[in-house]
Amino acid sequence: MDQSIRRKQIDRRTETQALLIGAATDLLRTVGFSGASTAAIAKSAGLTTGALHHHFATKEDLMLSVLDRSSERVLRRLEQQDHVTASGRIDVKSLIAHLWEVYGDPGYWAVWEIIIGTRADEAFHRRIVEHRLEAMRGVLHPWVRRHVLADTAEPEMLPLFEFMLVAIRGLSLERFLDKDAAYFDRNLNLLAEMVGQRLALLPSK
Predict the structure, then answer these.
(1) Domain range enclosing 163
(2) Are residues 45 and 65 in the same domain?
């Protein structure tokens, strides 16, 4: 097959998958897990259910792809270099602000909907939980080791950054309670202060 044709096919497939993931994310955010059926997602994307299943065999596969997109957004934020100083230290406030752009976005509600909505399906929920743990290990841990971690600090550094993410994700749930911007700014600044003070005591590379 001609390479340009193959490339166009891959591009179309990628675009369609992104369209379906976006539609699923929007529906999860607005109508919840139970309301985000494959038929509803396909309709929202302007596609047939058959077209959806051509790209995602099951709703489970599509939900996992929604989670993957969220992890990719976190990775992109982590890889931005403006929060790592020339000395290798991290600007915690800048990092938290970048991460909040992901976790504080209403689109992140889709992740919570998947986590909570799958509780009745024990097998799938277990997959979701493991997927989230793998995302943490695959995204956060390598970044910490590559950018800010001295070997002697590893036992303390990784739990500290895991705590930071747990706190940010937990704060994202407060959006359901319609808190104002000042509330989030205050708590994010407090988190940055706490993590920054602890980080300053640990050796960097």
Answers:
(1) 60-200
(2) no
What percent of the chain has a predicted confidence (pLDDT) above 70? Answer: 85
Residues 132-143: pLDDT tens digits? Answer: 888 888 888 787
Alpha-carbon span 188 to 179, nearest angstrom:
13
Strand, coil or helix: what is 84?
A: strand
The reply to whether 205 falls in a domain is: no
d(CA 105, CA 99): 10
In a shared domain, residues 137 and 183: yes
Q: What pTM was computed for the model?
A: 0.83
C-alpha R_g of the chain: 19
Statement to judge: residues 127 and 114 lie in one domain: yes
Residue 124 token pair:
């799938």
Q: What are the CA-CA distances from residue 3 to residues 8, 10, 11, 101, 175 (Å)?
A: 9, 10, 12, 38, 47
Place of tokens 């792809």: 65
Both tokens of 106, joined, read: 């209403």
Same domain, 85 and 121: yes
